[in-house]
Amino acid sequence: MIIAVSGKGGTGKTLVSSLLIKSLKDTEKDILAIDADPDSNLPEALGVDVHKTVGDVREELKEDTAKGRIPTGMNKWDILDYKIMESIIETPNFDLLVMGRPEGSGCYCAVNNMLRRIIENLSSNYDVIVIDTEAGLEHLSRRTTQNVDVMLVVTDKSKRGILTAQRIGQLADELDIKFQDLYLILNRVNPENEEEILQKVKETGLDMVGMIYEDDEVAQFDIEGKPLVELPDESNTVKAVNGILSRILK
Ligand SMILES: Nc1ncnc2c1ncn2[C@@H]1O[C@H](COP(=O)(O)OP(=O)(O)OP(=O)(O)O)[C@@H](O)[C@H]1O
Ligand SMILES: [Mg+2]
Predict the structure, then answer these.
(1) Residue pLDDT, tens place only, 67-80
(2) Which of 7, 18, 38, 95 has a CB 3.0–4.6 Å from the CB of 154, allowing a cystine?
């Protein structure tokens, strides 16, 4: 099962992605986390050091090609696939692949286009793949996330967050991209305005799979730079994501 986590910037994609990984690790499944956000911070949330990204691998290969260091008769794509496999970081509970962005170039589209290929190549090796996507709608229009099973759209209470969520649903329809399930996650809710926001969410027509409250402990982890996967199991946010996972895996 391939789960992508999307939404407007800063709405909580990385929080949800990292806690899904935390929640999955008790299921004994083979898990791959992919950080597909060029301004990546999933590794920090997972408490993992990253030495090499797919962007770095691509740059290396470009340089090797330019300097004639690719042995004749060897297929460049095979080398790329091999090097990508090598850049996967293994931890006791999950593997992690970071897309990153190529150095010396402002454009990361080429790296992101590789995401589709990576998903195709790796999906048979894992039970669950969780992708923390780049903010916004680009991954849909470039169809890098078209092969995912579950599209989770995270929004906060902001009008733009909810609008982006709605657009993701509409755009998937327009582009005829079929997900098995497309769900909304409402994040950073305060009990005071819960009713009002829930009404707005209802108007989007999206199917809500869970709600996460504004959480001081999450904010504190942020201040201290502590990995979110170290949030205690009693945390309401952790429990909320556990609930979301069980609904997805149903
Ligand atoms: N429920 C919550 N309670 C308190 N703080 C939260 C909550 N959800 C997210 N945050 C904080 O909001 C910020 C953005 O969250 P996060 O990094 O998960 O969003 P994102 O969608 O991945 O952002 P980006 O688009 O920049 O990658 C972080 O500082 C995070 O700690
Ligand atoms: Mg993020």
Answers:
(1) 988 888 888 888 88
(2) 7
- Assess whether the C-beta atom of 13 lies below 6 angstroms from ligand 1: yes
Structural domain tally of the chain?
A: 1
Verify whether ligand 1 is closer than 6 Å to residue 9 (CB atom).
yes
Judged by DSSP in three states, 216 sits in: helix
Ligand 1 nearest atom to the CA of residue 18, by list position: 18
Which ligand has the nearest atom to the CA of 35?
Answer: 2
Answer whether 36 contacts ligand 1 (Cβ < 6 A): no
- The answer to pTM > 0.85 is yes
- Residue 19 structural domain: 2-249
| Crossing angle of the two packed helices 109-122 and 54-66, in degrees rounded to 10 | 110
Report CA(143)–ligand 2 centroid distance (Å).
Answer: 19
CATH of the domain at 102: 3.40.50.300
